[in-house]
Amino acid sequence: MSEQKVKVNEQETKTYRVQGFTCTDCAKKFETNVKHLDGILDAKVNFGASKITVTGKTTIESLESAGAFENLKVRDDKEQRVERVAFWRQKENFKVYIATFLLISSFFLRLQLGEEHIIPIIGYAASIVIGGYSLFIKGLKNLVRLNFDMATLMTVAILGAAAIGEWGEGAVVVILFAISEALERYSMDKARQSIESLMDIAPKEALIRRGNKEMMVHVDDIQVGDVMIVKPGQKLAMDGVVIKGTSTLNQAAITGESVPVTKTIDDEVFAGTLNEEGLLEVKVTKRVEDSTLSKIIHLVEEAQAERAPSQQFVDRFAKYYTPGIIVFALLLVIVPPLFMGADWSEWIYRGLAVLVVGCPCALVISTPVSIVTAIGNAAKNGVLIKGGIHLEETGGLKVIAFDKTGTLTKGVPAVTDIVTFNNNEEELLTITAAIENGSQHPLASAIMRKAEEHGLNFNEVLIEEFQSITGKGVKAIVNNQMYYVGSPNLFEEVLPKGVKAEIKESILNLQTQGKTVMVLGTDKEVLSLIAVADEIRESSKEVIRKLHQAGIEKTVMLTGDNKRTAEAIGKQVGVSDIEADLLPEDKLNFIKELKSKHYKVAMVGDGVNDAPALAASTVGVAMGGAGTDTALETADIALMSDDLSKLPYTIKLSRRALTIIKQNITFSLAIKAIALLLVIPGWLTLWLAIFADMGATLLVTLNSLRLLRIKE
Fold this sequence. Notes:
Among the domains are: 13-61, Alpha-Beta Plaits; 91-194 and 304-371 and 657-709, no CATH class; 206-289, Calcium-transporting ATPase, cytoplasmic transduction domain A; 410-535, 3-Layer(aba) Sandwich (Calcium-transporting ATPase, cytoplasmic domain N). The chain is 49% helix and 20% strand. The protein is built from 25 helices and 27 strands. The strands form 5 sheets. It has a 7-stranded mixed β-sheet, sandwiched between helices. A 6-stranded antiparallel β-sheet has the order 7-6-8-14-9-12, with no helix packed on it. β19 and β20 form a beta hairpin. The longest helix is centred in the first third of the chain and has 33 residues, at 167-199. The protein is elongated, with a radius of gyration of 34 Å.
């Protein structure tokens, strides 16, 4: 994502990348620290995307000082991406290796020299200091401010263990906590890689022709109108329109389509797609920050920052849970020795164990890591989910409504039948095409295409007094004769005795086959019938079948077509319900009605004509998001390719994400409850407490990373 700069009240807004976030608490704390820096008006951290947007004047050094508690590294967005170091070789992990070595050495020394010997104690103390010095600094600072987060609880527990002579246990707690943090860091980096892989899709330079010169130009310096030369085997660096050449492009990175698409002059192409065959010259139509790929990355990052309903619940719960644990631990330390004569040392130990096991880390991280992983995986597969809330809502869908034209069908009508009544077919088709030439109706273009196929010169026919009859058809004078072209209903009004029974039967037969019938005639008779049909997408039937298999209870087709045409198409694709003769406001009302009955309803459309229904639905799904700004902006989910086959995958991913989030929350709370119950008989040791906390965090994260494996 390129650097974003906007002047806000003469102050600069700028985005930086941050390395080292391990938990949402740390991200929140970093945001607060940055807000308190001199010259900063506002700051907003996006934990999922690992970035911070600041308004005001600052330096990278100042930002890093605000993140010193977590040793955060900040870099300018325009800088070359730092090469990723293997997890085992990361600098932060070396203290864990040294501390672990000291712990093991001290354990064997204690066996040889005895428990009270000073050398093992020094070894344990060194292990505690090396493995936990950054934790202590954080914890002590927080303790002074009475900010009881995870670092504070751990610091109190470890220092308490040392104070009552449990040096070995304190060292084990430090090591296990350090390992836990390292694994969290590794897991979150793994989840974020889905975004970073998107950022690396498009090249940073392109071969540009300006005048007679060809030169390599950085994408930030390429202007709209520049001509980009793309050789076979190269990726496109910018969005544009082909002005010379023909080739096949692999668009999988943007649309998720596995089959390469042929592109020729006037076709739109996207940054990040791979030119497989021919040499292309592309006129650049968007600056790098406005490209489809940049918009996808920006929207995905924003989506990952948005809090899902389950995350909001967890945050509210943790707000009261942590103070509750501290009060419980304090009572556990004080009440039994004071009122029951119990041993102080034993109950201080139990209280410390409660503090350790009470850390809400696994619970807090359970939702965001799932959301980040699922949204990143979806983006790589050509599906843009615009927030955790939409991911969760999609997982709970029961009903999906589809617009017919352009969604279940290709949206390009074609003439299938021409029926004439004792007249010349070509002459009547010429008159019909000449009249429809003045119409904006989609069916008119189908008739004109048919006339062109027959080589008819309908453009030369003189048309007089052309007039549109709203919702019914058109009329015009050709060769001093008034002709009407329109729906059968129009001729019921125009003809004195209505449409003849045998012609009605022909119309009915065509409509039963799912075709729309246009009628040409005068005010005395019907001259011909022209049947037009919109072809069904090859994938529609299979998609509907897979959705029913996935547990969608009802699929509904919504269309403005007549009932017979709608039923013919609906039966072919296999939808469970068909609603015909609908105006846009009828679709909107129908979605509202479905919501009142079934609660969670998705509407699938093209993002333009269906905007009201998309907005009213629980989840609005737009087709063909690539290159369509309206679809990207209006829908909750955008299928980047103009293909429905991504819908079952989206439902599957969302349902799995919802299941995993529920599993994570349940498991996090259950492990805490079991560990706390072990306090009663005195079975909860410090090392067991940290092991339970670390194990819960690790399992929650690994469980979430399973979402990366979900494919179509």
